[in-house]
Amino acid sequence: MSWPATDRYDIEPAPSGLAFVQDFLNTLSAGKPRETDLLLDRRDAQAWLDEVWPEERKPGQQRSPVELHDADMASLRAFRDGLRNWLSGTTADAPAELTSAFGTTVRLGADGSVRTEPAGSGWEGVASLVLIEMFRAQQVGEWRRLKVCRSDRCRVTFFDRSRNNSGVWHDVRKCGHPANLRAFRSRQKSAASVSRPG
Description:
Order of helices and strands: HHHHHEEHEEH
Number of strands: 4
CATH architecture: Orthogonal Bundle
Low-confidence stretches: none
Strand content: 5-15%
Oligomer: single chain
C-alpha cells in the first residue's frame, strides 16, 4: 500500500493500521524544503484519503469511503494538528478536538471475529478511523512508538523501531547530527565567553 504523505519524507511507514495514523499526521507540511499541506484544499485531501483508506474498511464498491466537503477542512486540520501537538508533547492533555465523541460500529463476522468500523461522515469519519487505529495500536503496544521528530526544522511523524524505543529523530543523519552539532557549538561558545577575563 502507498502512503503518499509519509513517502515524501522517505521514511518507513508504521505497521498495520497505525500507518494510516502516521500518514494522516504527515499530511502537514514538514521538513526542509517544506512540502504541501495535503489537507489545505478539499480536492487534495479527498485524493489523499481515497488513496490511503484501507481496502478492508471500504464499504462495498463505493469509491470514496468518506466524502469530504469544504466545511470539513478546518475541523480535519484542527484534529490533525491537535493530535500531532499532543503526540509531540507540546500539550500535556489531549486537546478538545481529540476528546469529542466519534462514532464507531462494532460488527460480528460470520467467522465469529469482532470488527470495529468507522462511523460518521466528513471529517468525523476520518477521525473515527484514526481513533480506532490508535486504540488497536495501544492494544498491541505499538502506539508508544509513534513519535514526532524532535527537530524543530523537521517535525515529521515516524515509527521508532529502536530496540529500547529511545529514538527522537526521524533520521539521525538528517536531524540528529545537525541538532547535536548546534548544541555542541552553543556550549563551546558559552564556555568561551565565561572563561574570557573581564
